Amino acid sequence: MANYRVISADNHVAEPADLWTTRTELKFRDRAPHIESRADGDFWYCDGEKSGGLQASGGNVGLRFEEREKLSTKYRAEEIRPGGYIPEEHVKDMDLDGVDVSIVYPTIGLFLYKVRDSELLTSLCSTYNDWLAEFCTPFPERIKGIAMLNVDDVSEGVKELERCANIGLAGGMITVYPHSGRGYYLPEYDVLWAAAQDLEMPLGLHLVTERPGQDSGSSTDHGFSRPAAMTNADHWIRMSTADMIFSGVFERFPKLQIGAVEFELSWVPYFLDRMDFNYNERSSRNEIYRFKEDMVPSDYFRRNVFLGFQEDALAIQLRDIIGVDNLQWGSDYPHTESTFPRSREILEEILVDCTEEERAKIAGGNAARVYKI
Prior knowledge:
- With about 375 residues, the chain is α/β, with parallel strands linked by helices.
- The chain has a single domain (about 5-15, about 85-370), classed as TIM Barrel (Alpha-Beta Barrel).
- The chain has 16 helices and 11 strands.
- The protein has helices at about 20-25, 65, 85-95, 110, 120-135, 155-165, 190-200, 225-230, 235-245, 250, 270-280, 295-305, 315, 320, 345-350, 355-370; strands at about 5-10, 35-40, 40-45, 50-55, 100-105, 145-150, 170-175, 205, 260, 305-310, 325-330.
- It has an 8-stranded parallel sheet. Strands 2-3-4 form a 3-stranded antiparallel sheet.
- The longest helix has 19 residues, at about 120-135.
- The chain is globular and about 60 Å long.
């Protein structure tokens, strides 16, 4: 793997404890995300509700390989991994892991999409984005930030996407599934798709970012306490990408890039088959939007949807069905299940049967193309 540039297309920051309490608009500071200490550890709270623990902030990273017995949910704020919020330490960890470029998503920010007050969420996203731009600034060629966007109000989401492009962020993240009745098949999102296409800002749909009202498994821990919910989390990304494809979004916006981030890959072959079958064979097919181009749903998926994964070896065996050009590896640093600090070793194992060209694409080339690196 030494001959290839390695880009982790799904790394994370670990937000500083005082990020929102010192930077958010004054009218929201008493409701902003903050850490509270309990006997069983420190936990993030937002707007009076528990948002999550600190185990994903770096305290557990690497333990899965040799010291699994030390994995814990009882972490304190002072144990947050410095690489999560100090850019110089982040780059040191990248070097240790053999990663050349880090594309970073939030950590607790993922769970803030459960915040019901849309105005509050918009403010929290803007605050995070300002801090993230500062985090990336010392190493612009090595750390690429993905902005948090609230698209409850699509026009506000577009303004924030434009602002984030101007401050140097590399893409945006939108909810993996909107409020009920607000699916991505609706024409109101066209201004967002147009802006993302014109700005060349890919839009990632990340695990556990569905808006409130969706049954993710648990109202307090957002599904993490219910293994069945996490096992089937790819339901939401399938619904959203299918909505976009069947409503002609990618026909209207052919250069738009949408990412399925941290859902692994093995669900994709069946999903592609079912989309094409329903488009071509179901009795209701005359009621389905018919593409003006000579394409089927799977063609749009392979052209416009990129796929983040960590260790899905089965899917690599099925890479020709999924589409090699769609695949983007990510280490998920500094989360518990991350491949850090063995990413190079794990990549070698997963890609052992791939050609040299395929390895180069999956390890970094595809991400470099999508993010214009």
